[in-house]
Design a protein that fits this description.
Layout lengths: L3 H12 L20 H8 L3 H8 L8 H10 L4 H16 L16 H10 L4 E4 L5 E4 L1 H7 L12 H7 L3 H4 L3 H12 L5 H15 L1 H7 L10 E5 L3 E11 L7 E7 L2 H10 L7 E2 L2
Antiparallel strand pairs: 1-2, 1-5, 2-6, 3-4, 4-5
């Protein structure tokens, strides 16, 4: 069974053209990507040890080894941070790990005050697992008909992967699913991600698990959404990270075209109170 770290290292290695690192190009007919022996040499570790990491047989590499792999793969700063997160997540998968406490659903009063200032724009407080912790009336007007907000503790990721309506609401379902599966692997903590992924895998099956194993950042695109009254809409998503202890962020939807801007004006006319979901 693979691990988040091993899956990422293998996928990243397969995506690298050897000549981009000053190595000889692979002969025609060979599998693409960087060979294990080349990555092991660049990282200063044995091929056998690299194989164990990629296959999930070594789940607790030292920080020095993780940094060496980052050097060997020529990762940029964002990818290096992602690799370190995956190393922590892989350790959390070790047998005997206790089930962690769920991430806090409490939203600070100042964050709720900020959310009020964003109304009537569709906006909400969330975390990387996809929990909807508080939202503006504009979000309720936009997503209320979809049923996404009906659950006592709404979660965008669970809705997208388990609710049949999601594929109608989000025409670019495949792209959105890629993004949400990737984000779920990043927190709020390694242990929380591991348990969330394990629970969701039972409900969602291969559609989630095969994406969760990729660990490569997907491209981000405008959100396409179909509203029952307004039809197809396109939104830019602006994500505002909150301080580290919160492990939360504000996500604001901004119209990506004139038709969506007009629809946003109509949807924002009725403005019930802000809703926090504790």
């Amino acid at each position: 069974m693979g691990t988040p770290l091993g899956d990422f290292v293998r996928a990243k290695r397969d995506s690298i053209r050897p000549e981009s690192l000053g190595l000889a190009a692979q002969p025609r007919g060979r599998a693409p990507g960087l060979r294990r022996i080349d990555l092991a040499g660049r990282a200063g570790i044995s091929v056998e040890y690299l194989t164990r990491i990629e296959q999930g047989r070594d789940r607790n590499p030292s920080p020095a080894v993780v940094n060496a792999l980052a050097d060997g793969l020529s990762l940029d700063p964002g990818e290096r941070a992602h690799l370190r997160r995956l190393a922590k997540l892989t350790t959390a998968h070790c047998p005997g790990s206790a089930r962690p406490a769920p991430p806090s659903r409490e939203v600070r009063p100042t964050v709720l005050a900020t959310l009020r200032l964003l109304a009537p724009a569709p906006a909400y407080v969330t975390n990387r697992l996809g929990d909807v912790l508080a939202h503006t009336p504009g979000l309720a007007a936009l997503l209320g008909p979809s049923g996404l907000l009906d659950a006592p503790a709404p979660n965008v990721t669970r809705y997208v992967f388990t609710d049949p309506r999601a594929r109608t609401v989000f025409p670019d379902w495949e792209r959105l699913a890629d993004e949400l599966a990737f984000d779920a692997g990043l927190g709020p903590s390694a242990s929380a991600s591991a348990w969330f992924a394990s629970a969701l895998a039972e409900e969602a099956g291969p559609e989630f698990t095969r994406r969760a194993r990729r660990h490569l950042p997907p491209p981000r695109h405008p959100l396409h959404l179909v509203h029952p009254d307004e039809g197809p809409l396109r939104w830019h998503r602006e994500r505002l990270e909150l301080p580290a202890p919160d492990e939360q962020f504000l996500l604001v939807l901004l119209p990506a075209d004139e038709a969506t801007e007009r629809a946003a004006g109509r949807l924002g006319r009725g403005r019930p109170p802000l809703r926090a979901l504790g």
